[in-house]
Amino acid sequence: MSTLGDRFNRMTGKTRFVVCRIVVSLRGAEITPLLGTLNRAARIAIDSEGDLEVMGEQLDTIANQLIDLQPYWQSACNEGDVFWDEGEAGDYVNELFADSAQRYQGNVDLGNTSDTDTTDDPLTLPVTENVLVSLTIATEGEVPAIETDLADLDALTDGLKALSTLHYQERLRAVQVHFAPAKFGDRLTDEQLLSNYPELIPL
Length: 203
Known about the structure:
alpha+beta, 6-stranded antiparallel beta sheet, 6 strands
């Protein structure tokens, strides 16, 4: 539902920015290959020096793999805000980045890593207890699918699909991906998950 402020800003021709962070935790032996996708995406992002088109492609790949792994979703949460000033939106993106980065010391993000495992062979992947993925984006315009509570299987599926759509519509203005554990062989325990991500809601 549009607020009076939203309608006024549209009338004055201001650009609407949405900044959103979606966090999903998964559990099960079958999710281990997701770490390969995440580490590969990190290396590609580094090689591209954070090129937004490349980052959007990796976001699309990760979002679709998360959808495919829906049976293993354990919990999720999301947060965000709407801005009519690009600078304020950028500041909020940076705030979410800093918060995500400090949640788990073993974490790696797509735009700031130099120590990622190069193992891609799924036969060599150790079983991991939990995997957590945090997706932060900034986009222009309205995105109802992510401007709502996503702690629900159907809503979260729609929200992840929306991220792919935003990439193909060339509406993304920032993309950040954090994940834990950061490397093959590391573990994210239940205790770490609870202490570092208390806002997660069981699905």
